[in-house]
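Example 3.2
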Amino acid sequence: MPTRIDRLVPEKDVLHYRVQLAAPATPESYLSWSQEQLTAEESTVNPDYPDTSIYEIFYSFFRGTEKLASVHFRQDTPGATPLRHVRTLVFQGAP
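Structure, written as tokens:
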């Protein structure tokens, strides 16, 4: 699905990924892809701050400069895993 994934300037307890796509996806695809990323990699520790657990993760999906969707996960309580899905926003341009 993605053509490129960039991790944006990190905060200690928040990760934000910019996901570049060639074309819009379905609303369900944004959420399922994001959930797969959470299970495929260690999502509870920021590699730049290994002693700090992750509170939130954002995945922002773009086609060029057009924002297509955003998926947000959050920790309910300190140290809780897995992170809980908070919301998926789909913007104009999505099918």
